Amino acid sequence: MEKISVYINGRFIGFSENGEKLAKELREKRRQGQLESDVNVAFFPLTSELFINTDEGRARRPLLVVKGNKTALTEDHLKKIETGETTWKSLVKQGVIEYLDAEEEENAFIALNSEQLKNEERQYTHLEIDTSSILGFASSQVPFTEYNMAPRVLMASQHTKQSLGLYAANYNLRSETRGYLLYYPQRPIVQTDVYNNLGVYKRASGQNFVVAVLSYAGHNMNDAIVMNRSAIDRGLGRSVFLRTYSAEERRYPGGQKDNFETPQEYVQGYLGPEAYSKIDSNGLISPEEPVEANSVLVGKSSPPRFLKEISALDVETEKRRESSLTVRSNEEGIVDSVMLSETLSGNKVVKIKVRKTNIPEIGDKFASRFGQKGVIALLADPVDLPFTKDGVVPDLIINPHAIPGRMTAGHLLEMLGAKAACLDGALKDGTSFRGDKQTDFEASLIEQGFHPAGHETMYDGKTGRMMHAKIFMGVIYYQRLHHLVSLKMHARSRGPVQMLTHQPTEGRAREGGLRLGEMERDCFIGYGAASLLKERMIDSSDKTTELVCGDCGSLAVHDKVKNKRFCPVCESGEVHEVQMSYAFKLLLDEMKSIGIFPKLKLKSQA
């Protein structure tokens, strides 16, 4: 019989005659309390290996132990839990509950609920404590997950992390670099047990919208959404963006230091008196002061970057340079707070928080808890929107094609459940695998005199005519995501360039250019748009005029003292001006640096 290799924390320690027996014995000792509860054992017969893991950093989860298809948790245990005689730790010590890591789970056969244990054909080893515990923190907050495709639940979890809400109750006392805050956060009408038990409702991150599933004259094609302008005016989806800027009075070798002040006119890089009009004599701006792009928040002057030696004959005043803290070039807002303090080294430090109210606009992103994300394409006046026979106008209109293609039935179920909740005044349970059912919602709607399927008879807001189709309409929890169009919008005609390549800088924060990549270039070539290609790749990028020797083909130079052009290689005077990309000139220089001598053969343009 083949021997089994045994590893502890990845290190080989020896062999075993019977790996399955050893794994069984170790697990039994763990359940009896003879081994620590954080030891995990995994046996793999195919590779004849047994792994014992005791190291930190493993994700482990609790499960109920099952023997002979009967759970170790008895009625006696449950009574003691209710009276408080038994605790979670004592259940772990007694071997009723044990923690499994990812490797030991490979040896486990886990039942989802106690009903499955009745199937005698299967021998289960463990039972889930709660069916929804197979989900993570974010996905367990999504209602009715069992009705949706797994990728959509995963996407919904990502959206939850991006949603705006009350991220911290003490946001006024904090100094985050970036903070997003929803003005009127609400708890969802349909919520899960995990959401309730963890108290996530105290930090709500969305609002309940009245949503109609309807095409609206092509304005909500694909993932676009139409929103009610009136609802937005009343505060729906409104948020505030907080940005903290900080500056420090640094000390430099030689006794020099930065100064918070209104820079004097002789300072190198002086911005003019208008730029410093909002700051006081200490160099600081006041709270509640409106600021625009590049407005000075902290006036600061610094010593020169390079100190030159001062001889005895030189009588030179200290030269200083302008180094004020300014608002980012693409942002604006109102100064929220100014905090002056000291660092550990005794330097003065200032932190200034700027806030900007973000009212939802065309281009802003919203998402439900089912991965149904959309961007506002139209803010419609309420008079133009369709309305029900009771006069209810939707806050948001989503395209019908978004539902069947993505198979998010849970989205429809939440709309139905929340609609029923609005009518009977009771929160609904959307916990995975055991929440309220569709029939419960239908019964509630019938009782209130509504259509059981959530359908409404609607009238066109523009013509007043009744629509000859039943429109599905309900209430659903929507989140505003922090992909705000105001923080993404970017354009440039000309601006800063990189020192090395002379090409435009990259990125919105650095006022960068908009990249025309290889695929776009191929399209221009395919369409024969040569002039446009030249403009984008040369004129708008890194066009330069270099001198080239007509005899040897190397780059020539211009002697400014003698006002003479010549080739430093062959000393020829036959020099021509050639337009090229600076990146190409850089390539020639780099080739020379590794011992390759590139030559340019010139032809007449005629």
How would you briefly describe this protein structure?
The chain is of the alpha+beta class and about 600 residues long. Helix content is about 20%, strand content about 25%.
Q: Looking across the biggest beta sheet, what order are the strands in?
A: 12-26-13-24-23-29
CATH topology of the largest domain: Dna-directed Rna Polymerase Ii 140kd Polypeptide, Chain: B, Domain 6
Mean pLDDT: 91
- Inertia-based shape: extended
- Total number of strands: 33
CATH level 1 name of the largest domain:
Mainly Beta
Our measurement of the CA-to-CA distance between the termini, rounded to an integer number of angstroms, reads 87 Å
Low-pLDDT segments, ≥5 res: none
Structural class of the secondary structure composition?
alpha+beta
Query: Number of domains in the coordinates?
Result: 4
CATH superfamily of the largest domain: DNA-directed RNA polymerase, subunit 2, domain 6
Q: Counting H and I runs of at least 4 residues, what is the number of helices?
A: 12
